[in-house]
Amino acid sequence: MTSTVELNDTNTTSALMQLTDKPDAIMVRGRGSYLWDERGRRYLDFVQGWAVNALGHCPEVVQRALHEQAGELINASPAYHNRPSLAFAAELAAATGLPRVFFCASGAEANEGAIKLARKWGALHKGGAHEIITLEGSFHGRTLAAMAASGKPGFAERFPPVMPGFVHAAHGDIAAVARAIHAGTVAVMLEPIQGEAGVVCLPDGYLRELRALTEARGVLLILDEIQTGMGRTGRLLACEHEGVRPDILTLAKGIGAGVPLAALLARETVSCFAPGDQGGTYTQHPLTCAVGRAVLRELTSDGFLERVVARGERLQQRLVQLSREQQLGSVRGQGLLLALDLAAPLGPAVVQAAFDRGLLLNSPRPELLRFMPALNVSEDEIDEMLSVLSASLAQARAARSQ
Ligand SMILES: *Cc1c(COP(=O)(O)O)cnc(C)c1O
After folding, report:
1. Topology (CATH) of 27-51+302-401
2. 106 CB under 6 A from ligand 1?
3. Is 155 in the pocket of ligand 1 (CB under 6 A)?
4. CATH number, span 60-299
5. What's the predicted TM-score (pTM) here?
6. Which terminus of the chain has fewer Cβ atoms in its 10 Å neighbourhood, N or C?
7. What is the 3-state secondary structure (H, E, C) of the chain?
């Protein structure tokens, strides 16, 4: 028996597990800041796969890298060396100042690797210390250890028993971290800006103080730059704004600009995996590493990050202006990772109204909108987004006051 799935049957008859409510549209094509659905409707995309499509949809440099590498070698097996992963590891190490690199396929997998590496280091150099301090509100991924690491309320407890070895300290409070460190602590792990929590920034100077604290107390500093890294905040890494280098770093999302690529990086002295400790079928993958090289080349090309800063400032200014006009809350974030506080739980209604007008937005919390456009978004696209957002807000408010 065969059946065809109709467009508007996606939610009821799809064979996919139903995990979140989605609009009925089926996306079929993307270019730059725009997506098209099967009906030919066009959407201006300010979500970009949650900050994943760093260069927008289907960028030519990524198409070319995929095409060329796919014609040479798609997968040799992690048992053998391949040129793209060797070259990309060297280039990423040079760009980040962290000399040891492990490539995998998702952010959660990179964070699992970071947790394992820290525990191994603790076993070897710190008398078996293994506890990792993370921050309240944090999000580190959806595997069991990454969920336990996350400080998002109720998240770790969803699939008991919770993986032990994590404690959460108050966000933005150095003294709270200092109090939580004891002989059994091996590392502090955090996001420079909490993305999923709603673009929650740390106080100025916090990362520098935390770097000094972790050095003084002999524990590792692990930065999860899966969302903030790869140019998103206007520097290659967000920690560069504070002149801080972590002991362990994780990258994903923007590093592959849409292909499943992630990286775990470490200082030489911390890079202590022994043979058999770490691996995976899709590690050091030539196809995704070839893309990673092309993306890094683009992000570090002349003037690219300066343009991210300029576009970020423009978007921020426009959002502040809109907030003033419509009496909304604050605008926060850095570079092209920004959030607008709506001062009321209007998020879902605004996202829906914007979708109907051909604009894709994200509301990580009911009173908040998060903006993660392509890093090469144009000024015109920013202005177009603002005008559709403004109309969508007015519509959502009118509906609410009825
Ligand atoms: C998205 C994200 C993750 C998880 O990455 P996946 O690729 O979805 O596993 C982890 N940490 C942060 C900060 C993220 O934004």
Report:
1. Aspartate Aminotransferase, domain 1 (3.90.1150)
2. yes
3. no
4. 3.40.640.10
5. 0.96
6. N
7. CCCCCCHHHHHHHCCCCCCCCCCCCCEEEEEECEEEECCCCEEEECCHHHHCCCCCECCHHHHHHHHHHHHHCCCCCCCCCCHHHHHHHHHHHHHHCCCEEEEECCHHHHHHHHHHHHHHHHHHHCCCCCEEEEECCCCCCCCHHHHHHCCCCCCHHHCCCCCCCEEEECCCCHHHHHHHCCCCEEEEEECCEECCCCCEECCCCHHHHHHHHHHHHCCEEEEECCCCCCCCCCCCCHHHHHCCCCCEEEECHHHHECECCEEEEECHHHCCCCCCCCCCCCCCCHHHHHHHHHHHHHHCCCCHHHHHHHHHHHHHHHHHHHHHHCCCCCEEEECCEEEEECCCCCHHHHHHHHHHCCEECEEEECCEEEECCCCCCCHHHHHHHHHHHHHHHHHHHHHHHC
